[in-house]
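Quick one - first record:
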Amino acid sequence: MPTLRHAVALFLPGGLVVAAALVVLRPGVVPGVVEVYVHVWALLVLLVGVFLAWYYNRGRIVFALLLLTGVDLALRWLGPGETFRGDAGRVVVAAVAVLLPLNLAAYAVLAERGPLTGGSLRRLIPILAQVVGVGWTDWTAIPQTGVVAFAAAALYLVARCARHQDPTEAGFLWALVAAFVALHGISRGWSPTAFLAAGGWVLIGALLETGHRTRYYDAPTELPGVRALNDTLSQLGGRYVLALVRVDHFKRLRASFGREVGDQIVRMVATQLRRVAGGGMSFRYGGDGFVVLFAGASAEDAISHLDAARRAITAYCFVLRSPGRPRKKPATPVPAAGPRVVITVTVSIGTAEREDETMRPRHVIRTARGALRDATAAGGNQVTA
């Protein structure tokens, strides 16, 4: 179920860029001197976006930027006075209204292959085929068809964003909105170039956010990683409590039940630590290790919250899938062929409190590591200060 945090993440930054464009880029709001440079701005969006997409090896963003640029060139070729006059203008606008949202939705969900691979370059073929089709096909589309296409693509992307919270897919969603505004505003004299370029900026923002998440977040657990932990520690002043968490007997569990079960254990522990109370911030610390950080808290308060998380992890049991059990749930329940195997997972937690502002983060981590060794040596499944 999407939460308020997910809704805010969906709106920012793409929705903010489109909203700002609606306020600032309408005729009469932008000074005439600035309007002259709108096309320069659009070219800058394309160049910066393609460069960053190449740098981060994101081919989908390249194709989406080329798509928005191609639509802009087609609409500029018609000219503001001819867009809704004559058969050519009606055909191009109607075709763009149908094809643009469908293309953006398709590129949003394609597997990423980088911008310069053979399989990725083949994805340009549909765009080129559609350009030829729009230019040479003499047919007239019903305007409502484009609205339906935009709505269907938007609903599809919203559903995917609600499930995955992927910045790239959220960027495609808001690029789709910007493209709709670009087409919708033509009859009002709005510049489609400005809004299509806004869509390009949204994709660039999604690209940068994806790069940031890749660099600072651990993908399997969706927790901030070691780099984010170091940055947070360097910015904290005053007292805080740092806890090191490790899964008891993790190597033995993974050796006995396989890597896939080991990965599931790590994700479960991450989920429980993410819910820790008392303002604790959880981080992935490599392998089966985690860090929970309590800014401004006392050791007594932090330990009570950590012990609650430890109990929640212990209470969570894994039921292993039997070899003959199907991957998907069958329509008719089938009794298990073998015995029911349940795994109980426990964690050991070592804590350290920083009371002296001259104490460096590495010293706090070293103290917590010593407390963690004591917890493990005492049999595990406990919190030690």
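second record:
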Amino acid sequence: MRPSGVVDVGSNTIRLLVARIDDGCVEPVLTRKFRVGLGRDIEETGAIPDGRIDEAADAVAQLFRLGRAEGAGVRVLVTAPGRQAGNATDLLAALRKATGHEPEVLSREEEGRLAFLGAVAAAPPSSPLVAAVDLGGASTEVAIGRPTGDVAWVRSFDVGALRLTTRVLAEEKPTLRTLARARATVAEELAALTPPLAGEARAVGGCARALRNVVGAALGASELTEAVDVLARLTHDEIADEYDVRPDRAALLVAAAIVLTEVQARLVVPLAVVDGGVREGALLDDAADAEERVA
């Protein structure tokens, strides 16, 4: 079976996944990543500097070639940077030139849907209705649907771990007043989030996976409160050393825990951290489309 590939251009990281799809399961063949940090530039200036665009294009070109070397057709998907950067067209032009293929900017709804597909495939639920939370650097998507992959409800919010860190939590060991301001910022952004009641919930994204190292894979209200309390007392280097995460990721974890706290409060059920996400969802979606064409 020929593998498929996807390069995911996100706010923090650019990642490659090459995998085979077998009976609805994603079997990874190759994964690689580059940390480029497009979201920080967008948050600070509203645009991506030329040098950073060149860096991103070089990373995507390398990952694209690696995927093709595995015999895979490779899609290039751009998430929040393609929607939020004032010069997103320059980024897309650079990616197009670097790969010879057209990059695809995911809408908010499509990003949420693909994250849902990947999350449900990674950990099939038993409840008739399940939620998936995709916590990114610059946005958070919440999707709710059935275990079969039918997504009925999607919302997206322009708040993520990197964006909240840059705006409110840039200093290490934030004070109680700063933490309260961060919570208020997220609560205001999520004020319109009134999701259907799901029996289970999944959380995906690099920061969610890092929080698993801190308080475990089930992120309920008490675990997320503990995560904020513990992490806010540590420097970024101490977080990295204590919980085996990259220093750049460690700097985002207080913000990540606060965002997930506000989302979890509205979903009610705990968030189970899983390894699937947008990339896996995109490959599963492609495989389903191919099966439909054959049928």
